Structure formats: structure tokens, C-alpha cells
Amino acid sequence: MQSYSKKFFNLKISTSKGRLFKEKKSSLRTPFQRDRDRIIHSASFRRLKHKTQVFVNTDGDHFRTRLTHSMEVSQISRTIARALNLNEDLCETLSLAHDMGHTPFGHSGADILNECMKDYGGFDHNIQTLRVVTVLEEKYYNFKGLNLTIETLEGLIKHNGPLYDTGGFNKILQLYTFKNKINFNKFPYLESQISSISDDIAYNNHDIEDGIRANLFSLNEISEIPFFKTIFNKHNKNIKKFGKKLIVSQIVRESINQMVTDIIENTKKNINKYKIKSLNNIYICDKPIVCFSSKMIEIDKQIKFFLNHNMYNNKYVLKKTNEGKKIIKNLFNNINKNPKKYIKNDLLKTGIKERIVADFIAGMTDRFAINLNRNLK
User: Fold this and answer.
1) 3-state secondary structure at position 19
2) CA torsion, ordered 120, 121, 123, 126, to nearest 10 deg
3) Residue pair 108/321 in contact by the 8 Å Cβ criterion
4) Per-residue pLDDT tens digits for 6-61
5) Cα-based torsion angle of the residue sequence 155, 159, 165, 169 in order, rounded to the nearest 10 degrees
6) Which residues neighbour 357 within 8 Å (Cβ) at sequence distance 6 or greater?
7) d(CA 79, CA 229)
8) Residue 54 and residue 212: Cα distance in Å, rounded?
9) What distance in Å separates the CA atoms of residue 375 and residue 369, rounded to the nearest whole number?
């Protein structure tokens, strides 16, 4: 590990370009540690504990929520960053913040809110995260939002890679907000790429675990995927002694470890292959540097296909998510007709009414949305 420390030093985000609004520096924390702490102490982050990952939050106490998912992404990203001698605090910050714009009821909630907002610029949960941290959170006298560093904002904007088409952003969150301090069409720095791939690793593996826990599929069924079959065969002999629950944990643990190891080794190869020697080399590279090997890419596709077929399109899951869609559509229609009944008048004066309504709904937890919908008259 130490042999790579010096080699990758120039690829690490070690200092910040600053914030949109100037602040005094802290003598106790780095700018990225302050970003992380602002996210953790925000209301939007706390509400993630009652927002759906796959299973609606009222279904049980042991399934993942957006909050536990974000924490798991954070752990994975820190591991990768440490192995590559990159900025762990920045990776943690991006990982904790990346889902703060999610609606109740998971991706289905975002889809139906986008449909409701089709005549008003649409809705996108990634862009909503930027609205949360730059506009909606209010904790300071001198500015709206959390005033995060330029690096954190850039990482969140480029969660899925370079932003070549800025149309969606401009409709929902004007890009002039960032005062020309971010180049949108260049690849993000390595810490941002790590956070993004860690998101994939976390939800692939933990959705497998939650799916088995919910009896949507069995250990034998996930063995249809050769990758999991190999791991399962190593642990199957212990199932009578230790039970299925512990065996599942061992399989998921080993799967995550293999994926993380693959990312670390493949990233090192890519750094050498593309002759990456500086941050600027990362920005101008025309492909991601932090990515799976070709073998693991195929495994990733197989896992996603399996989950799509056996989990996300499972009748029970679809029933719950469709109920969530109906709730959000009903909330939007009713609140939009009489917004002053639910939203403070001062807030309604800050922008387009429909966008304020969408902000209000997107910020709800599952149970708040369910209860408010039940009480609509």
C-alpha cells in the first residue's frame, strides 16, 4: 500500500478552491470535514432514515433505507480512497450527500414527481440534491444552503460523470449559481468517481441481501449468477451449522471485498495505462479511471439484470411502489391547488409555485407522505 502513496500524491484533492460565499477557515477541521459535518447535521440528511431504498419504510425495521445505504456507500468509498491514498473525507462527504434529493418511495417516487413536473422543468433527484445543499437547507445568516466547497459541489454535479447537457440543470437549478467555478463537461476527479462506483457496489450487494431477507428470492436462485455461485459453494457446507442468515452475510461480505479489490487494482492499472500524473490529466481523460475490470463489468451487469427481474419488478415491490406513486401524484395535485394550506407563504414567494411544491414533496419521508395523503380532504 505504501508503495503507491507517493506515486498517487499528485492525484489527490488536498486543498479546496473555496466556497461560493467566503467564510473564515476552521483551525480544527479541513474544508471537506466541515462539508461532511454540515451534511450530517442537516435536516435533509436526517430524513433519509425514513425514505425508501427498495422497500417502503413501513415494511420492516431491518431493510435498508436511504440513510443506511448512504452510510454503507461512505464506508466503501473510504476504503477505496485510503488504498489509493486519496482524500477520504471528500469521498465520505460525497457518499453521504449523494441521495439527499431523493423523494419518498425511492426511484418510483422521483419518476412520478418528474411526470407531475413535466410542464415546469421536470424533476431529477440528482439535481434536487444540489437544490438541497445550495438553496433549501437554511442554517446560516449570510447565505442559503450549506455553502459547501467547490469540490463537493462539483462531485455531486458529476455523480454520473461529465455534464454535457446542462438543460435539465438550468430548468431546475440555474447553473449561474456556481459562478463559473466548475467545468461541467470534464470528467470529475478520482474521489468523485470513487463515490459513484461505491454507490453501485453498495446497492448491488445490499439489495441482494435485502431481497433474500424479504424472501423475494433464495440463496439457490442468486447462484444462477456464476459469481455468487462460486462464493456460495465455499460457504454452503456451513449452512447447517451457522444458518442461512449468517451465510448470506458472508457471501455479501466476500462479494463486496472482491469488487472493492477489483476497483483498486483496476484503477491503478488505468492510472498507468492512461499516463495519469496530475489532476489535469484526470479532467481531460475521455473515460472514467475508477472503474471495474472487464470481467467485473460483466458480473455487475449480471447482478443488475437479476435484481431488475427478481426484485425491482417483483409483484410485491411493484405493488408498494405503485401505491407510492399514487400518493405522490395525489399530494402534488392537492397541494398545488391550495399550497398556502401546507407551505408557508414566505416560501411560496421564492420561486415558481410548482417547484416549491415539488421541493416540499421531495423532502417528505415515506410515513409523512402516507399520513398527509390519508388526511387530505
Assistant:
1) strand
2) -150
3) yes
4) 566 589 999 999 999 999 999 999 999 999 999 999 999 999 999 877 655 445 56
5) -70
6) 332, 335, 336, 339, 343
7) 26
8) 13
9) 10
| CA separation for the pair 323, 65 (Å, rounded) | 18
Grid coordinates representing 331 are 399530494
Query: Residue 211 in contact with residue 307, Cβ under 8 Å?
Result: yes
State the number of CA atoms in the 13 A half-sphere of 321 facing the CB: 21
Distances (CA, A) of 373 to 56, 110, 161, 297, 366: 15, 17, 36, 42, 11
Amino acid occupying residue 6 = K
N- to C-terminal Cα distance for the chain?
A: 62
- Residue (of 143, 55, 154, 52) closest to 99 by Cα position: 52
Provide long-range contacts, Cβ within 8 A and 24+ apart, for 20-26: 20/134, 20/143, 20/147, 20/150, 20/153, 20/177, 20/178, 20/179, 20/181, 21/142, 21/143, 21/147, 23/147
Residue-by-residue DSSP string for 221-268: HHTTSHHHHHHHHHHGGGHHHH-HHHHHHHHHHHHHHHHHHHHHHHHH
Which grid cell sits at 368?
A: 409523512
Considering only CA atoms, which of 101, 186, 119, 193 is closest in space to residue 155? 193
Nearby residues of 72 by Cβ (< 8 Å), 6 or more positions away: 64, 202, 206
19 DSSP β-pair partners = 149
Residue pair 34/89 in contact (Cβ under 8 Å)? The answer is no
Domains detected in the chain? 30-188+325-375 (1.10.3210.10), 190-315 (no CATH)
Q: How many angstroms separate the Cα of 348 from the Cα of each of 113, 171, 303?
A: 18, 18, 44
- pLDDT of residue 1 exceeding 50, the answer is no
Distance CA 289, CA 345 (A): 48
Cα 12 from Cα 35, distance rounded (Å): 17
Query: Cell numbers of 58, please?
Result: 413501513
Q: Which three cell numbers stand for residue 273?
A: 495505462
pLDDT tens digits for 171-209?
888 666 776 888 889 999 999 999 999 999 999 999 999
Residue 64 amino acid letter: R
